[in-house]
Design brief:
Shape: globular
Number of helices: 2
Number of domains: 2
Strand content: over 45%
Distance between the termini: 91 Å
Radius of gyration: 22 Å
Largest sheet: 12 strands, mixed
Number of strands: 12
Order of helices and strands: HEEEEEEEEEHEEE
């Protein structure tokens, strides 16, 4: 009977370890909801982040989150690298909002939606678009672009009256 108890205990220990390992793996590979979408890699001149009604500085290394708006001044430029290795660069006098960013590191699937209200934006798509070409969209006051290629540039100017 003690051989049976030892076998049962060993089985329970193995199942517990396997359960903990699975839980940790699931947490590690879960889509990034509410986490940092990316980080600022280049910040020159006047650049700020608007988050939850607050204006924050935007130095190199600052986190960019879903719903953040990045604003550049007349002398400002900013470069952002996202979790899937997508890169966005905004030029002077730009207003760029990260409307939605969800990325699953395991499958490389997700959704990336941003809005350029004014200014210039250059983009290089990352792993997400390679996996699902329809996953990245950029909205402007005049159009919604589906990013299916690898790179593009868009400029939004004030309408002439």
């Amino acid at each position: 009977m003690s051989q049976l108890h030892a076998t049962v205990r060993l089985t329970i220990v193995r199942l517990t370890i396997a359960s903990v390992a699975l839980a940790l793996a699931a947490a590690w590979s879960a889509p990034s909801l509410g986490a940092d979408a990316g980080r600022i890699k280049v910040s020159k001149g006047s650049v700020s982040i608007q988050r939850d009604g607050k204006k924050l500085p935007a130095p190199v290394g600052a986190a960019i989150q879903q719903q953040d708006t990045v604003v550049t001044g007349a002398d400002g430029t900013v470069g952002i690298t996202f979790q899937d290795s997508s890169m966005l660069s905004a030029g002077p006098n730009s207003v760029l909002t990260i409307d939605k960013y969800v990325f699953d590191r395991t499958t490389n699937k997700g959704e990336f939606e941003s809005s350029l209200k004014q200014g210039t934006l250059a983009a290089v798509s990352g792993k997400m678009v390679k996996q699902s070409p329809e996953s990245m969209r950029v909205k402007t006051p005049a159009a919604i672009m589906g990013v299916r290629g690898t790179e593009f540039v868009v400029r939004v100017t004030e309408p002439t009256r």
